[in-house]
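Supplementary Data S3. Sequence and structure tokens for construct A.
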Amino acid sequence: MKYIKLFLLMAASELSLGACAQDTSESKGDTKVVTDGKVLIVYFSRPGYNYNASMPNNVEWTDIGHTARVAGYIQEYTGGDTFEILPVVPYPDDYEETKTISTNERDNDLRPEFIGGVENIDDYEIVFIGGPVWYGGMPMIMHTFYDRYKDSLNGKTIVPYDTHAGSGIADYVNMTRRYCPDSEVLEALAVTGTNSRNASNDVKNWLLRIGIITENDNDNASISTSQSTLEGNSAYYTISGLPVKNPGNGIYIKVEDGHRTKILK
């Protein structure tokens, strides 16, 4: 019996350590962030009239750019910092005018300047970088961003994403690998622009798939756990940390209002 008590005490100690580890993970409802590194979400996005084949004249007014909306979902699930690439000379609201300007930038390999910069970029370990697909590839202002920060980004974990009207991920992955050959490039996400309003679950599933977030495991015991089971605010756990729905004979750790009680039956 002394051996069993010692084993149970060790299990309770492990339970306490597990609770401390959980407290360092940022919880977002039914998910939590599993990375210890700082997360940065970089995006370029353009509001105004954007392409939508189902609308009159094939354009639709958007107060928020499609990529900005997707970046918002990423921030919601990861809690990361954000940096928006804002051009010094804003692109016009008119879709056709923007096409003309962006095509000229591409054909002449121009590098439009953007406002400000990322502070302490070296502090970030995981960097999401996204934007729309223009003329089948990244807008040139995103090349400006990579040109400025490629040395700082190289070696970090980079996660490309984009919004598009049929081009998929386009050249986002290839450009990332070209600019940052020593970086780990995780699976990219391509979201159809007109579906950006409904893409929250797609973003969540993608983040789960690439291991940035995980589902909250409500079956894991924690000292801070407050559950109602068989006896008011009491919860019973096996020494492996799994809840006991119908306590019977055995060895348990009881958690009541955040306090552990060792029970031998």
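Construct B, processed identically:
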Amino acid sequence: METERNPADPAEYREPLGNGHSILLRRDALPLGTDALLLAGMLPYRPDDTALEIGAGTGAVSVLSALRGKFSRIDAVEIDPVLAALARRNAEDNRLSEVLHILQADARTLPATHAYHAVFMNPPYRAAGSGRPCRFHLADISRYERAGTIAQLCRAASDSLRKDGRLYVVYPAARLSALLSAFREAELSLRRLTQVSAFPDAPPALCLCTAAPGISDGGKAPAARITPPLFLHEKRGDKEDSPAARTLYLTGSLPGEWSRYD
């Protein structure tokens, strides 16, 4: 996809989303990556339901979901004021302000409303202190757990979900155990797991996880559905996208076996 620089601010650029829509991004923040597209793609079409995004960043996943009519209302929470302002502009530029509402706030301080049918997040992948800080602040807070651990963010999600709601998360496969531990602490149970690899003989890089409320200490979690793995390419060295990836990039959704509502 071609990008368009903003002459008024060289740090900003636009990424086309198709059908005349685009997203405004910053060069000192994280780009629109495959993980965000996968998260947006795994979200089900539930046009009568409400959703919350935790850690919205530039608002890309919420914008994509709103453009596709996946929910009747999306509240997107972002702690950083620069990113929150950018997300608000993206909602306005794509004429989504009636559906997509941006809130600058710390998700850890949200009241326990248990109001949302769906919560989704693409949280920071690395623990604070686990690596070299990023050069730019906006990229650093999106990559490292500077503003909340995965356990704290899962607790915020649990406190926001209805009893029949679902949490959708994209997370690195290498930290899957940390995510599952965070689910347990937040009284959430894993309902579906998809591992994502670049090609069939590559190790999993990402996990797409769906969790549900309703498990407490000593309780028994319902069985989780483990889907077939999702490959972005059909073989090593293949530059063409796999059929599943092609469906994701063209339609914004994953094929049925990977995006079914569980």
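The mean pLDDT is 89. The two ends are 33 Å apart (CA to CA).
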